[in-house]
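Hi R.,

Here's the input for the DP6 complex you asked about:
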Amino acid sequence: MEQQFIPNGLTASTEKGKVTWQTPSNIALVKYWGKREPQLPENTSISFTLSNCHTTTSLSFEKKQTPSDDFVFEVIFEGEKKEAFKPKIQTFFKRVATYLPFLKDYEFVIESSNSFPHSSGIASSASGMSAIALCLMSLEKELNPTLTETYFYQKASFLARLGSGSACRSVKGELVVWGNHPEIQESSDLYGVEFTDVVDSVFKNYQDTILLIDKGEKQVSSTVGHGLMHGHPFAPQRFAQAQENITNIKQIFAQGAIDDFIQLVESEALTLHAMMMTSQPYFILMKPNTLEVINKIWEFRNGTGSKVCFTLDAGANVHVLYPEHEKESVQQFITNELAVYCKNGEFIHDQVGMGAKKIEK
Ligand code: DP6
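And here is the predicted structure with DP6 in place:
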């Protein structure tokens, strides 16, 4: 299967150039938590693609003067040279080298910046790795101009996955599924696919306000957390539950069943954190204010009949999800009642977006 991504006809050549992609972050509704080598998910996940939270990455490339057997690159993050980011990219290059045999022929400069504040706790690996993957695909396209659009995006997602699992859901489409599922056509463990089944209009332009509860470095990285699902006593049940939830959310989208959506999405978030709390070693990424906010959301929903709900990623921040027609009232509620629980009162209004954009010179 992976074989399809090994190029066999790089007919053109290019000495030097520069490409730029802007790629979004995403927020999972059914969570990916647990993986096996090489970066394959233990269950299917689905996410909303975001819009305002994104990474912009430029890849400058120039053919090496003298061939060498190593990867030559510089990383510049928000205008500064970042040695600390190099090992992650080095690992990524090693993983994808089979699929991008031209990598060692070039010297690269990777320049990247995020639209969201640095160390805000917003997962930057999804947007960051998908941006690099798309830039590398643009280079491959220069070397093989006959690449089809389908292959281009599929392989970009495939490469992004090898950088960070959730990154494969940050390439194309408003709702993206990653992981093989009998009820999702074309779904694959190797890359994300656009969810193309019926989606009721209530879920169009869905809103996500990210409350920045805790901006510090996480005590446990996602990669370590995924690892703790190996031998986890509840892992098999969790993986089976996620598969069922994909079946359920498909129905929910088709029927516009927003109450069921709320229940499924909040349960997924709490289950993700329950897995962390029941790992060995166990850990807690929620903070007291995460729980304060959750309770406030429940109170508001019960009191007003609003359809607002929350989800969490692997951290303390809360994603507040709500339909577009409630934008005004929910944003008012956030400003009046939730902002106090955020670090420096900070939150980011976002909404569902379409996916990555190539930035032309
Ligand atoms: C909780 O994709 O960050 O956000 O594959 O190790 O890079 P790696 O992990 P990562 O895990 C994200 C986990 C999650 C849930 C999700 O996005 O589905």
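One thing worth noting: The chain has a mean pLDDT of 96.

Cheers,
M.
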